């Protein structure tokens, strides 16, 4: 599947979202009180000042972010933590102080992603490991949001399908000039954020 086809199909998710959400609610995979977050809607207010967005797929990634979150909080930076599972949301609520805002990552539809980014306006995005969504990455890059992949890797099977996946992955990240920055560029982005306080 090409990136263009993916983006077209993911736009159609808006029409299918009620069915998808209903099914996931029945399976216990969504929190009924926070379902709007999957559509990029939030009841929470964006805090003033610089905001670092950290995204991890589930429990392991959320726990792996703990030390990083503490160091960023020590710099007086606001933290927005996103994940995709009910279990990781529960862990985040227990593990982190109230000033660390947890949200469910929006479904990877351009409309939902735009709502999410419009509301939160992060100054830096840190993706833990490899829960990477094309529309999320491309929309962030279009807004010149620095993206950093932390502890990420991509293992793709040696096959024609694997080679195609690798090419699509590279193409998607190519839209984000800072998907794999040096330590120096990450330090620079953090200094700019801290100076904005």
Observed structural traits:
single chain, 197 residues, alpha/beta, Rossmann fold, 5 strands, 13% strand
State the end-to-end distance: 43 Å
The coarse overall form would be: globular
Residue fraction in strands: 5-15%
The pLDDT mean sits at 83
Largest sheet: 5 strands, parallel
Rg of Cα set: 17 Å
What are the segments in which pLDDT stays under 50 over at least 5 consecutive residues?
156-166
Helix content: 40-55%
Q: Helix/strand/pairing class, anyone?
A: alpha/beta
Element layout with pairings:
Layout: H1 3-11, H2 13-26, E1 51-55, H3 59-64, H4 66-74, E2 78-83, H5 86-95, E3 100-104, H6 110-120, E4 124-128, H7 134-142, E5 147-150, H8 160-174, H9 183-195
């Amino acid at each position: 599947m090409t990136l263009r086809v993916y983006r077209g199909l993911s736009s159609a998710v808006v029409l299918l979202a009620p069915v998808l959400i209903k099914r996931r609610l029945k399976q216990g995979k969504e929190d009924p009180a926070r379902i709007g977050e999957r559509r990029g809607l939030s009841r929470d207010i964006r805090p003033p000042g610089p905001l670092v967005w950290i995204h991890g797929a589930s429990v392991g990634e959320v726990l792996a972010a703990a030390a990083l979150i503490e160091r960023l909080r020590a710099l007086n930076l606001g933290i927005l933590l996103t994940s995709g599972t009910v279990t990781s949301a529960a862990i985040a609520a227990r593990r982190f102080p109230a000033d660390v805002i947890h949200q469910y990552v929006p479904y990877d539809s351009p409309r939902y992603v735009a709502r999410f980014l419009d509301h939160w306006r992060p100054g830096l995005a840190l993706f833990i490991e490899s829960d990477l969504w094309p529309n999320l990455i491309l929309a962030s890059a279009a807004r010149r949001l620095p993206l950093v992949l932390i502890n990420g890797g991509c293992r793709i099977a040696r096959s024609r399908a694997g080679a195609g996946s690798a090419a699509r992955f590279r193409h998607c990240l190519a839209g984000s000039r800072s998907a794999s920055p040096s330590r120096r560029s990450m330090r620079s982005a953090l200094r700019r954020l801290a100076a904005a306080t």
